[in-house]
Amino acid sequence: MRHLFLVAGLAALNLFAASAHGAGEIPFEKAKGWDIERSAPGTNGSTCLMSKSYKDPDDGNAVNVLVFALADDQAMMTFIYEHWTWDKNEKVRVPLMLDKRVALSRHTWTGDGTSLTTTVPATLMPQMLAAKKMILKLDGADGDFDLAGFPEAYESLRRCDVTPVAPAPSPSLPSEARIKSYHLGALMEAAIKECDVATTGKQRTAFDAKIQSLRREMAAIEAEIAKAVAGRAEPRCPGEKDKAKFQAALDEFLDKSPEDFAAVIDKRAADDAPGTAPPKL
User: Fold this and answer.
1) Residue 96 contacts by C-beta under 8 Å, 6 or more apart in sequence?
2) Which overall architecture, per CATH, does domain 5-162 show?
């Protein structure tokens, strides 16, 4: 149940509470049982958040989670309790207590399934930093959360907010053999689309799957290869005498690994014309 929710989108804060499984949040630090993270690239801004989850042994090991983030002069909280069943956007007005003191009376939270979300003024922070427990005075049963470690996590959260985002690492390049195989495959792909070459449905299905798999590896150089293929010299299509060679190359591309295919093409080029570049397909 760790990291059940990311923060990113109440209207006032441009934050949104969404499932973090698969969202790719970036770990920043751990502090006294809390996880401090930065929202993944591509989300709104570079929001830092802190979250803590635990199972309450006095409540049948029910899961409790608190997600907390800062935005200007406000803070956003999402409180999750395993057994809640709120309607989406259900408004809940309840007192917020810190230990035995009422911090906010009749404060509004927004429900959604097992979660309640709200914003509170940042002026509440001194009270939260001093408290051991947060309590929502709900009808029938209180909702409480153990705030142990909150001060240490809050300091880490502040550091995260002022720490510049590290630039994304440059994508690593595939091996030379895989690049060569993809380049030759891209030339064959263009020939299949533009030229009078015979292929079966089975060949096209297998070819599309393999070329797309390789294309995903070529993100860093895909544009360069696509430009080279589009600007290839004439003749752009295999002549009648070369169609058998094209079919042989297509079969080898499908049957062999990219490394083995590149090795076969290199050997064939060396055998046919030592010292020259591999022939265009």
Assistant:
1) 102, 103, 104, 107, 120, 134, 135, 136
2) Sandwich (2.60)
